[in-house]
Structure formats: C-alpha cells, structure tokens
Automatic annotation (TrEMBL):
Keywords: Methyltransferase, Transferase. It holds the Pfam family PrmA. The keyword Transferase applies. SUPFAM superfamilies: S-adenosyl-L-methionine-dependent methyltransferases (SSF53335). GO terms for biological process: methylation. This is Methionine S-methyltransferase-like. The keyword Methyltransferase applies. It comes from Gossypium australe. GO terms for molecular function: methyltransferase activity.
Amino acid sequence: MAVEEFLKQCQQSGDAAYAAFRSLLERLEDPKTRVDSRIFLSDLYSKVGSSDDCFNKYHFRIQDIQLDQYEGYPGRKKLTMMVIPSIFVPEDWSFTFYEGLNRHPDSIFKDKIVAELGCGNGWISIAIAEKWLPEKVYGLDINPRAVKVSWINLYMNSFDEKGQPIYDVEKKTLLDRVEFHESDLLSYCRERDIQLERIVGCIPQILNPNPEAMSKLITENASEEFLHALSNYCALQGFVEDQFGLGLIARAVEEGIAVIKPTGIMIFNMGGRPGQGVCKRLFERRGFRVTRLWQTKVLQASKSFKAGDTDISALVEIEKNSPHRFEFFMGLSGDEPICARTAWAYGKAGGRISHGLSVYSCQLRQPNQVKVIFEFLKSGFQEISSSLDLSFEDDLVADEKIPFLAYLASILKENSYFPYELPAGCKRFRNLIAGFMKTYHHIPLTSDVRKHS
C-alpha cells in the first residue's frame, strides 16, 4: 500500500486508522513482509512528521522520545514511537516515572524478569529493555489497542529504517527481550505462573465519573472514548484506598505479592494528591519498605482545573464528608500544601495549581511470611485486608509479629477453627510458661497441672 493511500484510510476516522495499523502489524509479524513493512513505517514518518496536525487529521502520531537526556544513558539516543487517540499518550507522568527508574542502580533490571503495568504505547518497556538488558519485559495493558500499538512500536525500534535488525552488546534485539499482552493488571503472569523480579507501573488513580462505563465488555472494537477512559480512569476495586483514587494500585500491589520473587522490587508512579503519607502507607501496611526515588510537580490543566482529563471536584466532595485533606500547591514553586477545596477556589480565580508526582520503590521486609498472609486472605477472608497493618517502625517488632501472623494464617488456612482445648489450657503453651519460669525465675514448674493442685 502506498503512503498516500494509507493516510487516506487513516483520515476517515480513529477506528479506520487503527484498522490500517492493525493490518500493518500483521505484515510486521510475518518475516516475509517485515522488511518492507518497516521501510513503509520510515516513509510514513518522513511524510507526516510528529505534529499535532497529523494527530488531528490522520488520528495517529509518530514521534521521537529522547533518551540521552537521562543520566548515564549508554544506548541509542532516541526511540521512535507511535500513538493513537484511544490509548494513553506519553506525558509528564510517564516521563517522571522513567526519570525515577533511572535513579536506581544500573543493575536493577539487568538479566531480570520484569512486568510493566499499564504499558500504554510501550515506550517504557522498550526503554527498559534498551538500557538495562533484562532477560524479559512483559508489557501489560487492559486496553487491547494499546497492546497492538506497543507491538508496532517494538518492531519499529527492533529494526532500523532499512528493515535490518538492531543488535545490542549481547547480540539480541529488542524483539528478543520484550513482549506485550492484554492483561487486567497481572492476570497474564498469574495465570501462567510467571515469577517476576521487578514490577513497575504507572496506572490510573482517578475514579471514572461514569462508573457504569467501566463495566462494559473490553474489546478492540469498543469506542475510542471508552478505550481512552479505560487508560486514564479506574473503577472501584473494593479497597479502603478507593476513597483516594488508589484502589487500582492497591490491587496491583496485592496481586504483585503473589507473583514477585522474595528479593523482588516494585516501583510505582503516584500522583501526590492524596498526600505523601497516604501514598506511602498503601505499601507499608502491606509489609513493604518504601523509598521515594524521585519527586516533581505537575500543573493541573487550567480548563475545568483538570489534570489531563481528570477533574478535582470529586476530591472537594470527599473533603466535605471526611477529615482527610488532599495535597495541592500554588504554582510549581509553592512548598506549602493546600487542600482540594482551596485549590479549586484558587484555580477558579485564575491561579495555577500543581500537585506532587513521586516514584516509589518498594520491597517486602519479610517476603515469604507476607506471601503466606496474603494467600490466606484470598481464601475467604478478603474483608480483613482493609484493617490489616504490617507497618512497624521497629524491625524487632516486625520480626516478631509478622512471622506470628504468617503462622496463624497457615493454621487457619488448614482449619477454619481452633481445636478445643482442655480447661487447663494448651499443653504446649503450659510447657513454654513452665520453661520460662524455670529459666528466669528458678521456679521448678512443670506443665502437669495435677502436680501443682
């Protein structure tokens, strides 16, 4: 197909543009037509460039993402990536996230098995593979169109403008290291028992103002508006963190506990609107040690005082009905936080509002025991998880209480009740008391009640 004919099809609608690129992906997947298809992409980019006019007229855009701006970057200087209107478009959120990833040592992803949640057009998964040479990166997204676009971007960056493979220092291409799959959070990995060493995610934190829309069947033929909302909003997840818009991240963390290896690390990008304390507590109460890698501020869009497509008026309503206060700032230089209600009024008066954007790195403090606890909670005790708190300031206290909870969970998983004990109490417990009294107080007690009656 000639470039002009391809553009004519794309110009019809966003759905037509997606159909054209889906057909192009099929030719990229076929080794016999791959070279010509990659050359076609180069010709297409040369023809239309990366302007907003292309996005509005042809319903897609191909643009370069500069990588050499990040400290210590040894690889290629840029990635060439495509986006369409029905998926998450790279913005300050994802660039801040990648900046945070770069704050880790270079060895963090080397030879590791990685999953990215909410991969969008796939640029972060591809950048991780390009810079750190992991064993495998699974880019996961619930939006089926995002997955198709990610595969196109993977082919576009695995082969040069002439369709020849680009090899790294280990003689592998990006195609050898990266896969993209449609997945509701970590369902793809859980269903295939894929054990991960790194989980990274930049996923929605704002509840959809139209909750019923989130219950529709997800297919690649769904409307652009629905698929775009799917990439930018989340639904209620049944977690206490839902009230702060963090329910989807909470579910991702708990799913991650089941599939991450004991020494694994999770890294999440989180908007600071709920407040830094709330964000950190989401991880800490589930047994994680938390480190903030990077923080910056992003402006709320002036139109309707929104960030991207997300309105803060719902946060004002939450503040009216609870003691919690969300965290915003006046402009980018303000250091003193203001609540959502003040931010709304300030923005309505013409002021510029910003909020924090942080990248958190998290690692389980006692991974094997925490895994046992959460595995138990999934077997009919999910309602307990809202009150579970595994955050301990003192490591010695954590070392005592977390193993006890894990032991209790393992006993309850096998028996939903405690065995009946004699009125005198558990003999094992009596032995412990007797041993304690004999060792520390030199009182010669035994566990036999009859000898002391």
